[in-house]
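Progress against Task 2.4 (sequence-to-structure conversion) is shown through the following example record, which the project officer requested during the mid-term review.
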Amino acid sequence: MYFILKRKTAVIALSAVLVLFGVIFAAAGAMNKDAAVAVNADTNWGLSFNTSSGIPSGNATAEKLKEFNACYLGDTSEKKIYLTFDAGYENGQTEKILDTLKKHNVRAVFFLVGNFLKTSPDIVKRMVSEGHTVGNHTMTHPDMSAISDKEAFRKEIEGLEELYTSVTGEKMKKLYRPPQGKYSESNLKMAQELGYKTVFWSLAYVDWYNDAQPTKKEAFDKLIPRIHNGAIVLLHSTSSTNAEILDELLTKWEDMGYTFGTISEL
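Structure tokens generated for the chain above:
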């Protein structure tokens, strides 16, 4: 009887030790998870298309983004597309794109970098005169998530504002897109404090490598099946493929029943 009790006591003691270690490891795991969240607070904008609704999910929800006056989608109850282009420089494609937009009577947002405004002021003026909006893509296209100093952040944003005004004589609309989609919560707050709406996207494809442009089929395979209500589409105006396919692409989307809105409507 003594040995049975002793064995039971040992089993209970061992179980208690295992439970204690389990608690310790769980707590350590939680601490590590919290640490990972803190380390990964700076992130790249990303999308997941594995949804039955056809509406992609971002790595921040639409509701969370609203807290910082940011968005990645329009109204998903409407068959409306919001077309945007990012442009760090001009390589002969932008005016072809502008010609197509004019043909379809579509107004887009061009998120421009300082270099584009400095080297192609006449194209910027054409954008404005044809009803397009020029948005802020920063002065020098840095990783803005690495900028924690408010004055440095302000310099990138307001420097482009001033350059835009010197080129066009107008004030810039306060729409901001983080270069490369790199952002942090503090960056979103800074942009909000400067009066900006941060605009991400819900549809894009790899179109920015000039020496490895996608084929027409590759472009359509990405852009046609994944279009959705309220889509904010990101394209690059440096892409020769985009310049080549845009007329047909817009026609296909129109044939699918989509119309085109402007970010200012949001």
